[in-house]
């Protein structure tokens, strides 16, 4: 895989522009300025396109989610019904191919008792991360609304979206890390008109980096006196292939992005044993003893990789109150299910039922 990095850093030398290691241009000094500038711009485009191909080949964790930008939706529908839906699926959202940013209501029963919040990972999407294919019917959080053992307990479902597209150009999110994304989630919960004062118990389900974002939100709530009422409402946290100790693949991705001047703080946070993941783990260890923690890890290797993206040693935290389970999936498919008969979906659904039974036993 390291040959990709070398190819990215040298791809432009053949057409005579400065390389990423600072070597001088091969253009002749007497080359007209206009021609030189045109070649330089063309070289940048070639270099970016080449690097994107490399990243897609060796870090395919959601590159299909790199288009457009959805509208932020955080308000509830007035007059909840049993089938209330807040954010339309991508095919129904005019002018948008991405799920919404921020906290979006997916489903609410008339009298909610539990809030499930779905948090996507790196380069993910609040809709597509949880969908296998492009059909709106593959968005499996809505399948849970048909499960009597789950919805009979007053479960409301929301998604949280944040901009973690590592192949886009510079923006205000370039310097944002897991801490900032986590605090954004906490702020959304604290200001949500349908969650903030509801008194519901909170369950988070995070895929990959999304699990770290959820952990950071919980830690922030515990440590902020203004949000301790929210912290007390956190009841369970689900982690799908979350790199609690970081991932070696994140280091390679960081190298590729720096090769085209697309450095992202949150990618560095994901590197194995980074300061960010160590701090989150240390804090979470002391603050999470009362939580119901469920960690699921991948067992299949993705195409173009020789090893797991997040291995078991990083996907579990070895906590006393942690339930651990393997899934027959790779890093990308661990959060996408083919149908309600998919064994991975059944594992997750049954685990949710067990959590809900502990939180709120079904009345006879």
TrEMBL record:
<keyword id="KW-0496">Mitochondrion</keyword>
<dbReference type="Pfam" id="PF05057">
    <property type="entry name" value="DUF676"/>
</dbReference>
<dbReference type="InterPro" id="IPR029058">
    <property type="entry name" value="AB_hydrolase_fold"/>
</dbReference>
<feature type="domain" description="DUF676">
    <location>
        <begin position="166"/>
        <end position="248"/>
    </location>
</feature>
<dbReference type="GO" id="GO:0005739">
    <property type="term" value="C:mitochondrion"/>
</dbReference>
<protein>
    <submittedName>
        <fullName>Serine esterase (DUF676)</fullName>
    </submittedName>
</protein>
<dbReference type="InterPro" id="IPR052374">
    <property type="entry name" value="SERAC1"/>
</dbReference>
<keyword id="KW-0472">Membrane</keyword>
<dbReference type="GO" id="GO:0016020">
    <property type="term" value="C:membrane"/>
</dbReference>
<dbReference type="GO" id="GO:0005783">
    <property type="term" value="C:endoplasmic reticulum"/>
</dbReference>
<keyword id="KW-0256">Endoplasmic reticulum</keyword>
<comment type="similarity">
    <text>Belongs to the putative lipase ROG1 family.</text>
</comment>
<dbReference type="InterPro" id="IPR007751">
    <property type="entry name" value="DUF676_lipase-like"/>
</dbReference>
